[in-house]
């Protein structure tokens, strides 16, 4: 079985676990010794993620550390607040701060706690969507804060 097939097999296992909320702990134990899906080791080709639904379990596996998730949620929340404030006050120059606020908190989480490379570098649009879906999942209790 090729390395990519094993990775995709693990990915399918993670998708099946997503609804029960045990994904983050289970993702780590799925294959502790062979961490071929981490962004730091290159991970699968971008073509391996044909849909966001396929990408999201990988995204969550890159956010196992609670401190990192908290920084992501904080950054995403500040992005939303900054966007609303910029529009409400008509201070549109604040919109330039959105990437700094959002990515700043997230990248601190990756570099200092996760010790991996953010998925943003290989999957920018899926990664951005993942930030907001994880934000929603934390707020609704699907993922531990």
Identify the notable features of this structure and list them briefly:
6 helices, mainly alpha, globular, 145 residues, disordered N terminus, 63% helix
Structural write-up:
The protein is an all-alpha fold and 145 residues long. The chain has one domain. Helix content is 63%, strand content 0%. The protein has six helices and no strands. Helix 3 packs across helix 6. The N terminus is likely disordered.
Share in helix:
55-70%
Number of helices: 6
Label the structural class.
mainly alpha
Low-confidence stretches: 1-42
Give the beta-strand count: 0
Strand content: under 5%
Quick check: average pLDDT? Answer: 77
Q: Roughly how many Å is the radius of gyration?
A: 16 Å
Overall geometry comes to globular
SSE order in H/E notation?
Answer: HHHHHH
Number of domain modules: 1
Largest sheet: none
Give the distance, in angstroms, between the N- and C-terminal Cα atoms: 37 Å
Layout of helices and strands, plus pairs?
Elements: H1 3-17, H2 23-30, H3 52-61, H4 66-89, H5 97-114, H6 124-139
Helix pairs in contact: 1-2, 1-3, 3-6, 4-5, 4-6
